[in-house]
Design the sequence.
């Protein structure tokens, strides 16, 4: 039986150096390999053209690439692209390219399925199977960067962790992926162009602040009234109260000097009253914030209905009266179930 090959991308540059030295190769080769893996996003050892054939064969004898592949790609009428991504073990996740005049944004997944039970989100109906590895997250970004160049003639500019899964419940792997994405020896993207969206896990929000992360933080809130939040996001409510969440955000701001964005959907007869809007405005008073009011995207058999335009206008007025920046975000990719809350692996075999 031959040696079981290890995924080359699980090794650090130091690990690759150790491998080469143990096989009588020059240590500087490791820097070349690492550059191929993370800067040039190579898919095989054959692409590493500045290595000798013997060196490539040595690597191939001991290591493999666990590459993802785009199983199905759908393009919306508005240009949005949704990828059904097949992982090395046959599991699926979805990622989305969102084009605008000035940006190409990648919406990436962090888990196969989701362990949360938000009642308005299609992904919550999927069983959480496992966390994604750092390279699986990184590969989603690489794919969307290539698609941006191919379909729009422009590279990726922004990344949002708003796909399948709760990124803070895959903390170490998500941060390791972001390190590779932002490292000058990796993709070299600015952390200021990356936003992590979470339901809000106070102890992990504090940990991010302590770890000195430089990317943006968004909170999926949807109600600043505890009883309503409990119905919309049962697990979030059971795990932490709004008081706990508020305190963790104040800690975040004190440590990082950066505010947060609240992602907020308004539904008819759920949270579309002036009482709801005032509660949100008060909650925003804890630290500098901005609010993204998101158009609701219906899901199969979902009980919710999009709020009226007058309710949206009322929210915006109340927030702006209190000098809180509020933006109404119109969803893209609805016709291919690629909009916020619609990712549900419908293309999975």
Sequence:
């Amino acid at each position: 039986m031959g040696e079981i090959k290890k995924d080359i991308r699980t090794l650090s540059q130091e690990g690759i150096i150790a491998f080469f030295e143990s096989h009588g190769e020059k240590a500087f080769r490791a820097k070349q390999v690492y550059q191929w893996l993370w800067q040039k996003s190579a898919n095989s050892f054959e692409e590493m053209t500045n290595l000798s054939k013997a060196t490539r064969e040595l690597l191939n004898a001991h290591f493999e690439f666990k590459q993802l592949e785009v199983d199905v790609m759908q393009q919306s009428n508005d240009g949005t692209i949704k990828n059904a991504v097949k992982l090395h073990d046959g599991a699926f996740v979805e990622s989305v390219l969102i084009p605008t005049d000035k940006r190409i944004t990648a919406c990436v997944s962090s888990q196969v399925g989701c362990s949360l039970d938000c009642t308005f989100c299609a992904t919550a109906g999927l069983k959480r199977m496992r966390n994604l590895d750092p390279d699986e997250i990184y590969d989603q970004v690489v794919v969307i960067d290539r698609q941006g160049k191919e379909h729009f003639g422009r590279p990726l500019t922004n990344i949002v962790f708003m796909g399948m899964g709760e990124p803070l419940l895959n903390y170490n792997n998500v941060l390791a992926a972001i390190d590779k994405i932002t490292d000058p020896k990796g993709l070299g993207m600015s952390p200021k162009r990356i936003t992590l969206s979470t339901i809000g896990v106070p102890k992990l929000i504090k940990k991010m602040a302590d770890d000195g992360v430089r990317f943006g933080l968004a909170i999926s809130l949807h109600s600043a009234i505890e009883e309503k939040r409990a119905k919309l996001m049962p697990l979030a409510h059971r795990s932490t109260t709004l008081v706990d969440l508020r305190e963790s955000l104040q800690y975040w701001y004190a440590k990082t000097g950066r505010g947060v964005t609240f992602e907020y959907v308004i539904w008819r007869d759920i949270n579309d009253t002036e009482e709801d809007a005032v509660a949100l405005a008060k909650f925003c008073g804890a630290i500098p914030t901005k609010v993204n009011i998101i158009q609701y995207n219906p899901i199969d058999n979902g009980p919710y209905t999009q709020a009226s335009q007058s309710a949206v206008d009322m929210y915006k007025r109340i927030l702006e009266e209190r000098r809180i920046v509020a933006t109404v975000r119109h969803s893209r990719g609805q016709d291919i179930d690629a909009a916020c809350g619609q990712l549900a692996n419908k293309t999975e075999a």
Q: What stands out?
A: The mean pLDDT is 89. The two ends are 32 Å apart (CA to CA). The chain has eleven helices and 14 strands.
